[in-house]
Each structure stands twice: as structure tokens, then as C-alpha cells.
Amino acid sequence: FFPQTITGNFANVIHGLNANHLTDQVIQRSKRMILDTLGVGLLGTSTEVCHKVTQYSKIYSSDISSTIWGHLDFRLPPLYAAFVNGVAVHSMDFDDTWHPATHPSGAVLPAVIALSEAFPQKKKISGLDLLLAFNVGIEVQGRLLRFSSEARNIPKRY
Q: Does residue 85 lie within any of the structural domains?
């Protein structure tokens, strides 16, 4: 395990999460968050900014590829697929929010899906694994947000 520092403690908590920590309520809320994010992301694929990042990203290619939402015939390396799909979600700005202001699912879901698609066929992850990865990403984001003194000042600045 990791050293007993703030960062080490944080890493130990995150590393220790597993599917047994997903309660029925967490699973149901996660599914709703995922569906909402996919819907907003699909709508966002029609925005000008999404068209620009999609065109820009076409210069990248790889043997490992992930889907660009709304484009069945276009795939990119996972890093760029997560970027393009994340831009699609955020371009609409209707995805879920927390206080202080952040959009947790729009940052996590595109990365989780892009990475899950990059696994070799014989090592594909299960739906439960995907839900766990999604929730670990949300947990990391939430804890980092709580640690941030900048985040605490957001309501005062706007």
C-alpha cells in the first residue's frame, strides 16, 4: 500500500474500492447519470466546437481505437475519443452538476467508455466493472474537489 501521507491515504481509499461498495442506490443513480451524460453527449455531437475537435482529431490513428459518439464509422485512439466525446458533453452544458460547480459525469464517462473499448476482446470488462470504474472516477473527482481551496471560493467569485 501507499505511504501514510494525505496523498497515500487518498490512494489507499481509492485503491480499496471494489464492486461490493456499489449499493443498489449507487448503481441506480449511476445508471441515471450515465444515461443523462450519453444523451447530452449525443446532442453535443452536433455543435460547432465538437465538429472542430472531431476534424482536428482525425489526424491521429492507432491500432487501438474507441468510438466517437454519433459516428459509427469514425474511431480514434482512446485518449482522443475521450477528448472528443467529453467536448460533446460539455458543449451542451446540460450534464449533471455538483456544488461547488463541476460536471462530474462529463469528465469521467467518456474516459471510462473509451478505455473499456480499448481492451482486447478476450479481456472485455463487465457492466459492473464499468459502473465501478465510473464511480471510482466520480469519487476521485469529488474528493479532489473537497480538498481544493479554489473550489470552495467558486460561489464567491461568481
A: yes
Which CB contacts under 8 angstroms, 24+ apart, belong to 74-83?
A: 78/114, 78/115, 78/117, 78/118, 79/114, 81/110, 81/114, 81/117, 82/110, 82/111, 82/113, 82/114, 82/115, 83/53, 83/57, 83/110
Q: Which domain holds residue 106?
A: 26-138
pTM to 2 decimals?
0.85
Over residues 87-114, the pLDDT tens digits come to 999 998 777 776 656 778 999 999 999 9
If one counts the domains in the chain, the total is 1
Q: What are the tens digits of pLDDT across the range 22-45?
A: 999 999 999 999 999 999 999 999
Asked whether residue 124 is domain-assigned, the answer is yes
